Give the backbone structure.
Amino acid sequence: MRRDHPIANGACRLVLVRHAIAQGNGRFQGHRDVPLTAEGRRQLSDLIPRLARHQIKAIYSSDLLRARATAAIAAREFFVTVETRPHLREMHFGQWQGLSWQQIAERYPRLANLWVKRFPHQPIPGAECFNDFVKRVRRELSTLVAASQDRCVLVVTHAGVIRVALASALGMQFHDLFRLALDPCAVNVIDCFQDGFLVRGVNG
C-alpha cells in the first residue's frame, strides 16, 4: 500500500471521515443517536484499505453511535484507542431533526424556502445557531491540531462538521457548503500548519 506524502515539520494531518450509512440516511439527523444500517456495516470493510496509506497515531470520534461504530473498526486496525469528543457532533437541527427534506418542505414550506435562499443566515426553530456550530467545530479541531503536531490523526464525525473544516481550509463562503459532496465513509485530508492549510483530498 502506497504511503501518503510525509507530514511537514510542525504540521498536523487531519484525516476526516464521515460515518458509514446510518438509519435514516439522508434525513436531517443532527443529534439523533441512530445506529449503522447493515449496508453501513458492510461499507466499513472498504474504509480500512483507504485509511491504510495514512500513519494514524490517534483517533477521535463524535460521541454519537454512528460515528463511534465507524471509528471502532479503524481502532482495531491501527491498534489505537478511540477518544470520544462530544463537540464533534453534527449541528442540532431543532424541529427539523429526523425529517427528510421532503417532509420539511411539506410541513414548513415558507421556512424551507427562506432557508434555501438565506443559508446559512436563516435560523431553524429550536436549532443550534449556525455561527455557534461553526465556532464549536473550529475550536474543537484547533484543540486537536494543537495536541497533534507532527502526527496524523483520524477524526470520525459528520457531514456538517467536515464541510465546515473543508470550507475553512479552502477559504470558501459558507453559503457554498453544499457544493462539497460528502458521502458516507468519505475520506478527507487536510494538512494544518501554523499559518494555513493544505487540502490533500476531498470525498475520497
